[in-house]
Amino acid sequence: xxxxxxxxxxxxxxxxxxxxxxxxxLIQKYLDENQQLILAILENQxxxxxxxxxKYQTKLQENLMYLAAIADAKPAEPSE
Length: 80
Description:
Layout: H1 24-46, H2 50-73
Helix pairs in contact: 1-2
Subcellular location: Nucleus
GO molecular function: transcription coactivator activity
Keywords: Activator, Nucleus, Repeat, Transcription, Transcription regulation
């Protein structure tokens, strides 16, 4: 279809297996992607493309679960 926007490119938790080192850059990549996903969900919701919304919501949920797993696995750093 012409005029259709390409969706955001996605980071996949399974890409190149699970990274052995979680960096702040990797976490920031997921946060940035989540922002893109939320905006895409809102745009598609506003034009009634519910199937697209569901696809983006699924990806957002996967990202949130991945970030939650990282947060749960990482020991809390002492704050000063």
